[in-house]
Design a protein that fits this description.
about 425 residues; alpha+beta; BirA Bifunctional Protein, domain 2; eight-stranded mixed beta sheet; about 30% helix; ATP binding; EC 6.1.1.22; asparagine-tRNA ligase activity
Length: about 425
């Protein structure tokens, strides 16, 4: 019976064949232990010389790292094995013998591993991170489908920018200027006026020359937009969504979290509702913590966000930022013109902002005023203004950065490990 490592539990005490690669091996006298992987998981294959014969045993002992093979053997339950199963090997058929595999079981430097990212992905740790990423994506679709959101795909090539063009990659669109999208939000607002509740999931690009462990040049965003949803209701949907992601990862990635050494007790605390602190109170809090350099009207940096996050054991919303700090489309507070109805969701443990969101301006006159104040072209944004001209309604939305969320939930230190092929300030290879 041909199967995969993930499904061997269905064939205990039965003989199966698995297509696999040799991740590692060791031998002691008359027994060889093969660490096998097939993409779905890892399993140990035990080759006993007395059971397979001299020729087959020597073939198993001589296997090289990352050689591909078909392995046939009997599935055994084994409580000591991470997956709970082991394979008693009866036959090994080599498909391709790998030689001089560059990533050996010793320690390697980050730059070396990044240069070999196409191979580093095969390692147990990177495999675990990618499985967590996949679970977050699966749970994202599940959550929004269950809550009556329609998936909509905004364009990647755009003629304008929702947050200004200073950090965009410019290109030519025949004889026009175009940009790689930094957000699908404006288009998602149009979709929400047609479909009510929508979400997008796709790549976004920021030409931001940042080298921090939180930044990528190309990253993936989940961006919901919701008609007839005001600020407070949007926050409730955000915390329900993030709680759903944490719960799904805890339930479906236990082995991966164990491989990564993740403290799951911290993730178990990620349950709605989340604490909320206003920007005003956050400034006061930071002053009390000795951050004398920050003043009202300044944006928060990583140390500020971390200090606030450390005060709580679950994600925290920072709300009502100064109007001057935020993009032109955010709805002002009805009681205070100097702040907007927005919130950043800060993850615990120093992972920073994972969501930015707001209620959007729904007044044509106010949006037109904001576009002028930001020195943007009214002609370029006329289609966006049209949304306020023909049946405008209160509406809200947010964007969740996938890679920061993967890094946080899996517990890896740097976002470069949370995407298959990271694009960093000085890295476009492989």
């Amino acid at each position: 019976m041909k199967t995969t490592i993930a499904k061997v539990g269905n064939y205990v005490e039965q003989e199966v064949t698995i297509g696999a690669w040799l991740a590692n091996k060791r031998s002691s006298g008359k027994i060889a232990f093969l660490q096998l992987r097939d993409g779905t998981g890892f399993i140990q294959g035990v080759v006993v010389k007395a059971e397979v014969g001299e020729e087959a045993f020597q073939a198993a002992k001589n296997l090289t790292q990352e050689s591909s093979l078909y392995v046939t053997g009997t599935v055994r339950a084994d409580d000591r094995a991470p997956s709970g199963y082991e394979l008693t090997v009866t036959k090994v058929e080599v498909i391709h013998e790998a030689t001089d595999y560059p990533i050996t079981p010793k320690e390697h430097g980050t730059e070396f591993l990044m240069d070999h990212r196409h191979l580093w992905l095969r390692s147990k740790r990177q495999h675990a991170v990618m499985k967590v990423r996949n679970e977050i994506i699966r749970a994202t679709y599940e959550f929004f489908n269950q809550n009556d959101f329609a998936k909509v795909d905004p364009p990647i090539l755009t003629g304008s920018a929702p947050e200004g063009t200073t950090e965009l990659f410019a290109t030519k669109y025949f004889d026009e200027d175009a940009y790689l999208s930094q957000s699908g939000q404006l288009y998602m607002e149009a979709a929400a006026m047609a479909l009510g509740r929508v979400f997008s999931f796709g790549p976004t690009f920021r030409a931001e020359k940042s080298k921090t462990r939180r930044h990528l040049i190309e990253f993936w965003m989940i961006e919901p937009e919701m008609a007839f949803v005001e600020f407070d209701e949007s926050l409730e949907i955000q915390e329900q969504y993030v709680s759903y992601l944490a719960k799904s990862v805890l339930e479906n990635c236990q082995l991966e979290l164990k491989t990564l050494g993740r403290d799951t007790e911290k993730l178990e605390k990620v349950q709605a509702p989340f604490p909320r602190i206003s920007y005003d109170d956050a400034i006061t809090f930071l002053h009390e913590k000795g951050f004398d350099d920050i003043k009202w009207g300044d944006d928060f940096g990583a140390p500020h966000e971390t200090a606030i996050a450390e005060h709580y054991d679950k994600p925290v919303f920072i709300t009502h930022y100064p109007t001057s700090l935020k993009p032109f489309y955010m709805q002002p507070d009805a009681n205070r013109e100097d702040v907007v109805l927005c919130a950043d969701l800060i993850a615990p443990e120093g992972y920073g902002e994972i969501i930015g969101g707001s209620e959007r301006i729904h007044s044509y006159e106010l949006l037109e005023q904001r576009i002028n104040e930001h020195n943007l072209s009214l002609d370029t944004y006329q289609w966006y203004l049209d949304l306020r001209k023909y049946g405008s309604v209160p509406h809200s939305g947010f964007g969740l950065g996938l890679e920061r969320t993967v890094a946080w939930l899996s517990g890896v230190e740097h976002v470069r490990e949370s995407i298959p092929f990271p694009r960093l300030l000085n890295r476009l290879y492989p």
